[in-house]
């Protein structure tokens, strides 16, 4: 063996596990279970932070004009949409990284990359003269956090036996999704304290309900910096890669399977709607109900949507392993469609009396989307075999990550065209009916082609 070959072999032995057969009960009990669960908790910590970085822009934009920026409603929706565009595009690349470079390298480097938008947003918001194109670029970079999902989830699917993948992926995706709720819940608190006084952080004044308050909006992004560093270190030190290798040509074989496209549509209904509405919810509250006296603070209510959707996803990930995913996906489609119709009665308010009903029907959409998110991640490992199952998970997640971009743009278009967002929610209901039919015919009915 040459020196270069020896070096390569040593590198592989240190980064890759020599053996990994989680579907073998003896191997699983001997060493697989402990390593799989340890890996899951490390990567779930990193994924939660990735989601927080992805959605921190949605929490920041509702405050920009309060501290001296002068952005139009259209510009604010573009800032909310841009992370979704970036997440979808970067997920298309991430879906190929784990089989090519392994979990250890991919997850460590992708976590470190999130330091760029975390630092950048903290600097940008301290100067109201920051050009819009800079804010737009930083919003795009924040979307890299959403891109990480298509590395983290396929990686996790490789560590667990098939019978446990619904639970494992449900736990990781559900807790990871808490990052959305975390950023919208945490932001109002952290911006009220001068956490980074040692950096000479600048404060801004804002007025709400006749009261003047001081905020440090840079905290909304800087608060994640030390945790991102910790997550990257843990990934490098504790994660090893599963010895499943596939080049890009082999992975592209998934696109010849019609079930890849069917599951893409179904997952777009569940996670696409979840992520899109989670990003748009704060600005939607401000747009629809912010003009009334004593208007509600958007972030006081917006975090409830992703919180409910994430919690439901964890719970139903466990349930899906026992019931199967197809029946739960059907329940999700019906519930989301009916809830979307219900929302339309409360999006043209004349006062604040309908606000609780608006929030309640929106939360119903998040609830049923959480059921569907859990169910689809039970279905995909059953419908597809590895390594193609991880490729499909990565691909569907990539397309659904465009949710914030698509939803924000559609809402903005509807507002510009008709002055309300009823058309958007009617369209969502129709999309749910379409996917209900696809899921029932191919996966849920008696004699279905791929019962799951």
From TrEMBL:
Subcellular location: Membrane
Primary localization class, coarse: membrane
GO molecular function annotation: nitrate transmembrane transporter activity
Coiled coil: none
Keyword Transmembrane part of the UniProt annotation: yes
GO cellular component: membrane
Residues annotated as transmembrane: 40-64, 76-93, 105-124, 130-153, 174-200, 220-239, 260-285, 297-319, 326-347, 353-371, 392-417, 423-443
Membrane topology: Multi-pass membrane protein
Highest taxon above the source species: Bacteria
InterPro entries: MFS, MFS_trans_sf, NO3_transporter
Key words, A-Z: Membrane, Transmembrane, Transmembrane helix
Any Pfam family matching the protein: MFS_1
Similarity comment text for this entry: Belongs to the major facilitator superfamily. Nitrate/nitrite porter (TC 2.A.1.8) family.
Descriptive protein name: NNP family nitrate/nitrite transporter-like MFS transporter
Record lineage: Bacteria, Thermotogati, Deinococcota, Deinococci, Deinococcales
């Amino acid at each position: 063996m040459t020196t270069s070959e020896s070096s390569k072999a040593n590198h592989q032995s240190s980064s890759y596990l020599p053996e990994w057969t989680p579907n073998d009960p003896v191997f699983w009990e001997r060493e697989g279970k402990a390593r799989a669960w340890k890996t899951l908790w490390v990567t779930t910590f990193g994924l939660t932070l990735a989601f927080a970085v992805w959605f921190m822009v949605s929490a920041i934009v509702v405050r920009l004009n309060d501290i001296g920026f002068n952005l139009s409603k259209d510009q604010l929706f573009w800032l909310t949409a841009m992370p979704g565009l970036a997440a979808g595009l970067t997920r298309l690349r991430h879906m190929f990284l784990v089989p090519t470079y392994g979990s250890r390298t991919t997850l460590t480097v992708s976590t470190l990359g999130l330091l760029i938008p975390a630092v950048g947003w903290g600097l940008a918001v301290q100067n109201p003269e920051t050009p819009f194109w800079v804010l737009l670029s930083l919003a795009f970079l924040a979307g890299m956090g959403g891109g990480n999902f298509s590395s983290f989830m396929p990686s996790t699917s490789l560590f667990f036996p098939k019978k446990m993948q619904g639970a494992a992926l449900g736990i990781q995706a559900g807790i990871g999704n808490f990052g959305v709720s975390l950023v919208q819940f945490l932001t109002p608190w952290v911006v009220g304290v001068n956490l980074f006084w040692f950096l000479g952080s600048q404060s801004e004044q804002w007025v709400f309900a006749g009261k003047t308050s001081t905020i440090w909006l840079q905290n909304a992004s800087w608060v994640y910096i030390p945790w991102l560093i910790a997550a990257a270190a843990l990934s490098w030190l504790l994660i090893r890669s599963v010895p499943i290798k596939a080049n890009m040509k082999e992975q592209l074989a998934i696109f010849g399977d019609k079930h890849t496209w069917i599951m893409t549509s179904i997952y777009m209904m569940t996670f696409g709607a979840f992520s899109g509405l989670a990003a748009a919810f704060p600005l939607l509250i401000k747009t629809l109900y912010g003009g009334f006296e004593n208007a509600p603070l958007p972030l006081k209510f917006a975090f409830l949507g992703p919180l409910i959707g994430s919690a439901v996803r964890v719970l139903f990930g466990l349930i899906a392993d026992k019931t199967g995913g197809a029946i739960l996906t059907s329940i999700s489609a019906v519930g989301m469609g009916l809830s979307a119709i219900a929302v339309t009665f409360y999006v043209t308010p004349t006062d604040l009396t309908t606000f609780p009903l608006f929030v309640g029907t929106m939360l119903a959409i998040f609830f049923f989307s959480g059921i569907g998110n859990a169910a689809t991640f039970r279905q995909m490992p059953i419908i597809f075999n590895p390594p193609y199952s991880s490729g499909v998970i990565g691909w569907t997640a990539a397309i659904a990550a465009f949710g914030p971009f698509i939803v924000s743009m559609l809402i903005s278009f509807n507002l510009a065209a008709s002055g309300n967002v009823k058309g958007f929610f009617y369209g969502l209901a129709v999309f749910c009916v379409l996917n209900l039919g696809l899921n029932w015919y191919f996966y849920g009915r008696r004699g279905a082609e791929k019962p799951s």
